[in-house]
Amino acid sequence: MEASVRLLESDRTGTGAAHGDIYLSFVPDEEIGLLGVRTMDMARFPVDYAYTLDSCELGEIVEATFNAAHAHIEITGVTAHPMNAKGNLVNPILLAQDFIAQLDHTQTPENTEGREGYLWVNGSSGNQARATLDISIRDHDRTGYEAKKDLLRSIAEKLADTNPRATITLDITDVYSNIEDAKTPDNQQATDRLLATMKNLGVEPLPLAMRGGTDGSWLSAQGIFTPNFFTGAHNFHSIYEFLPMPSFEKSCLMVQELMKHEG
Hints:
Helix content: 25-40%
Shape: elongated
Strand order of the largest sheet: 1-8-2-7
Number of domains: 2
CATH topology of the largest domain: Aminopeptidase
Largest sheet: 4 strands, mixed
Oligomer: single chain
Number of strands: 8
Radius of gyration: 24 Å
Low-confidence stretches: none
CATH superfamily of the largest domain: Zn peptidases
CATH architecture of the largest domain: 3-Layer(aba) Sandwich
Order of helices and strands: HEEEHEEHEHEHEH
């Protein structure tokens, strides 16, 4: 916003550099399920490429994010009083445990790093009649991503086959895609300008394959290649989060330079 104010003032006074049409979008961060960026009227955002400013220390560039999906499993069992439960009761909580037990416990967030994907069981509830599971699916590699979805489908099918009196449903929803899958020779200039601007400002580029996603992950899937660059902050989403002001100022200068006419 500060860079925009500076740009408008320089336009007013005639002291700024030439620039083309610039489109800005302010939305809530992607942690709420991309509910901000998904509401954008893309007809009002006719750009060849874009940038997001989301997290990252001084110099960090993100052109690779996870492919992400959410899986929701519902298991309906058969209730019975314990006194006549034998042969009648189907406990949905135990079936949910069986589902989790068939996952590879080495492919979880706490056991992976870098570009390694994972399945994260991050929600469960149940009673004697019904149980649910929520699982996050993450992988930078599209093939690995689809394989993880297929694994969940296979587990659900096998569990249903071995427990025919239970009802097991699995719904998988794609959430966002890997930014780098949208990169082409036609939009390479987005990267080139980013690196050139950093060089001009004396900032060392720190490429990062993000173990997460940005609003640019969704925009890239819509055909607008959208890499992310730093705000200068550290330790996001923790009590140790902090933002060095010199890094923040560099981020502002990055925006100002990128808004100049590339010719």
